[in-house]
């Protein structure tokens, strides 16, 4: 059973930075794609970033150039570095893991709250 635990959320001013981490247990993450979703109140959950087993990355257009996803397979961790945060980035961020290349994520973390406000 895979478990994903996020950390690093909080309150930041517009233009600031946050670093989210997701620690995985129960499986070898190097064999799986992982990523981050977010969901703001009243909005659908959206994919923010995904990192493939090859190391390739995909980003939502709204975060390109500001967010960077990375993975440390030895530490079973992925990180989302978020820079130049905007109020519209405020949401609950969820770590996700896919066991297949296509389709929905199969495992989710409990979420970490990101608030962007002055």
Please, could you describe this protein's structure?
The protein has strands at about 5, 10, 20-25, 35-40, 45-50, 55-60, 65-70, 75-80, 90-100, 105-110, 110-115. It is globular, with a radius of gyration of 13 Å. It starts with a strand and ends with a strand. The chain is mainly β. It is built from no helices and eleven strands. The relative contact order is 0.31. The strands form two sheets. Strands 2, 4, 5, 6, 9, 10 and 11 form a seven-stranded mixed beta sheet that branches. Strands 1-3-8-7 form a four-stranded antiparallel beta sheet, with no helix packed on it. β5 (about 45-50) and β6 form a beta hairpin. The model has no long low-confidence stretch (mean pLDDT about 95).
- What is the residue-averaged pLDDT? 94
H/E element sequence: EEEEEEEEEEE
Structural class: mainly beta
Number of strands: 11
- What is the molecular shape? globular
Supply Rg. 13 Å
List the uncertain runs. Answer: none
Q: Give the helix level as a range of percent.
A: under 10%
Q: How many DSSP helices?
A: 0
Instruction: Indicate the proportion of strand residues.
Output: over 45%
The biggest beta sheet reads: 7 strands, mixed
Compute the separation of the termini in Å.
40 Å
